[in-house]
Write a structure and sequence with these properties.
By secondary structure, this protein is of the alpha+beta class. The chain has helices at residues 4-8, 116-126, 177-192, 273-279, 303-312, 337-349, 366-375, 450-460; strands spanning 29-36, 40-48, 51-57, 69-78, 86-88, 96-108, 128-135, 139-146, 154-159, 225-228, 238-242, 247-254, 257-261, 286-295, 316-327, 330-331, 356-358, 361-363, 380-385, 395-403, 407-416, 428-434, 437-444, 480-482, 488-492, 495-496, 502-503, 506-510. The strands form five sheets. An eight-stranded antiparallel beta barrel has the order 1-2-3-4-9-8-7-6. Strands 12, 13, 14, 15, 16 and 17 form a six-stranded mixed sheet that branches. Strands 21, 22, 23, 24, 25 and 28 form a six-stranded antiparallel sheet that branches. Strand 7 (128-135) and strand 8 form a beta hairpin. 36% of the residues are buried.
């Protein structure tokens, strides 16, 4: 089997990881390595056809049949990796501490007379490998099962019910305390830039096993946010997605009970029943991240159409999903983005409802993808680091957005008196926050029709005030009725003027999912 991907990822002048190795004939070994890298996980390796077939198991293997451990298949490793222990230096792929947690031999549970390797490879290809393990810690029957519909690398590691099975198991309880401490210390040393030679610690008696619980679903998850950048780019370690123009929404499904809410924890359950009904069809406990949108006839998301849907119920409503944070007792925010998206795609393949849509992506070619977005008149694209973890509520440089159309959220601070044939109000007076103060960015009359004017007028009446929210006089072409700065709208515009006003803003709709105090001008980096 090829080890080209393994070799491609490593610089063997800087790491002591082995390059090759020849297996012992007739003896099929396994090794479990506890790997304290950017995130703690266990590497599960089986020697098949001369190499170590490998899976990363985030929560470690379990002797409890009730624990279906997520296992992400990775590149093949050379046979001699079975003995590797120590530290992969900072700056290298997989940098961190490696400790041999268990090793031994294994057999096929159902040999059929074929050669061992041929039969094992056949079972792997079928997505159902059943083995008998003979280790110090892992004993008895296990199955590696590829997740249903999976095109990627997501498997489950499952202990069979046999004489070795237990009802409670936590692999960390069987890791020596000295190894745990060493891993933490080395990560601290790496941050300080110090280098120390590492010698593997001898195994000491573990502390008594503790009762373990599945990760609980939190009541609220804050979505990870993207930073605006000025232009598209290509990148080997990046993927590129559609920038959907709708309401960002987090969904939790537990025992077919659904919660669906916005960034500021506004419930969408009553507003979008088709999405809720589709989510109830998921046969797993999950936490999902995506965008509620309405598609136009060309398949592009349209924020104004979403606004109209709230009133008419008409339009192609979908929940475009691009991330998975939790799956069946596993908090998976620490997995890489590609791993999470692979699981998400597999999950949605088993749900027969077109209201839920997997948000596809392309790898590397961001410039070409952006040109395609311009031709299709999308709002823009999102660029994401393929190895990024999910940083809840954070806005950093791992998720970036590039806009094709200039749009801005704005706080409604008042409205001008109508003139001509227009009734009730003329234009909306808009502002954004600069620190704690509101800054006037212009007034907007474009995009308003009789229906939206009537709805806005009714919503603004309870907010009328004598206080100018800006604290300074502003120039308008008609008298202004001031309102408390609580409602947020979205507008598109041509450009920012030299005095920081919007040129030719067009009203798109209200943003009930955004708190007014969080509305700032987005400046591209």
């Amino acid at each position: 089997m090829s080890l080209s991907l393994y070799k491609q990822k490593r610089n063997f002048t800087k790491t002591t990881e082995p390059i090759a190795g020849k297996p012992v004939a007739g003896k099929h070994i396994f090794v479990i390595q506890r790997h304290h890298a950017s995130r703690l996980h266990y590497d599960f390796r089986l020697e098949i056809d001369g190499v170590l077939k490998s899976w990363a198991v985030p929560k470690g293997p379990s002797m409890n049949p009730a624990d279906k451990r997520l296992a992400m298949q990775v590149e093949d490793h050379p046979y001699n990796y079975k003995d590797f222990e120590g530290t992969i230096p900072a700056g290298n792929y997989g940098a961190g501490t490696v400790y041999i947690w268990d090793k031994g031999t294994f057999e096929l549970m159902n040999p059929d007379g074929n050669s061992f390797d041929k039969e094992a490879l056949r079972e792997l290809k079928s997505g159902d490998l059943k083995i008998v393990m003979k280790g110090k810690k892992l004993k008895g029957e296990f199955a590696l099962v590829k997740m249903k519909g999976a095109e990627g690398n997501a498997w489950l590691l499952i202990k069979h019910k046999d004489k070795y099975a237990v009802t409670e198991y936590n692999s960390e309880d069987y890791t020596p305390e000295s190894v745990k401490a060493k891993g933490i210390k080395e990560k601290a040393d790496a941050k300080k830039g110090t280098k120390k030679k590492t010698v593997a610690s001898p195994e000491t008696a573990p502390s008594p096993p503790k009762k373990t619980k599945k990760d609980a679903i939190k009541k609220v998850y804050k979505p990870m946010l993207a930073t605006l950048v000025s232009e598209p780019f290509d990148g080997a370690d990046w993927l590129f997605e559609t920038k959907w123009d709708g309401y960002r929404a987090i969904a939790t499904v537990k025992d077919h009970t659904v919660a669906l809410y916005s960034r500021n924890e506004l419930s969408f359950v009553d507003a979008y029943p088709p999405v809720v009904e589709a989510l109830k069809k998921i046969d797993h406990d999950v936490v999902l991240d995506g965008e509620i949108v309405v598609l136009d006839t060309k398949g592009a998301s349209n924020f104004q159409a979403l606004q109209q849907y709230r009133n008419t119920g008409k339009g192609q409503l979908i929940y475009a999903l691009f991330d998975l944070l939790y799956l069946d007792g596993h908090d998976i925010r620490h997995l890489t983005l590609l791993e999470r998206k692979s699981l998400l795609k597999t999950l949605l393949a088993g749900v027969k409802d077109k209201t839920l849509r997997f948000s596809t992506h392309v790898l590397k070619n961001g410039k070409r993808f952006f040109e395609n977005a311009k031709q299709k008149q999308w709002e823009g694209i999102i660029a994401k680091k393929t190895d990024s973890i999910y940083q809840e509520g954070k806005r950093g440089m791992n998720w970036l957005k590039v806009k094709n159309i200039n749009e801005q959220e704005a706080v409604i601070c008042g409205y001008t008196a109508p003139r001509g044939s227009r009734k009730k109000l003329g234009a909306l007076v808009l502002g954004i926050y600069e620190g704690q103060k509101l800054h006037y960015i212009g007034h907007c009359g474009g995009g308003l029709n009789d229906t939206t004017i009537g709805e806005l007028y009714n919503k603004l009446q309870p907010l009328i005030t004598d206080v100018n929210p800006f604290g300074v006089k502003i120039a308008t072409n008609m008298p202004v009725t001031w309102v408390k700065p609580q409602l947020v709208c979205q507008v598109k515009f041509q450009e920012w003027t030299g005095d920081d006003h919007l040129r030719q803003p067009i009203f798109l709709g209200l943003r009930e999912d955004k708190p007014a105090k969080k509305v700032y001008r987005e400046i591209a980096k």
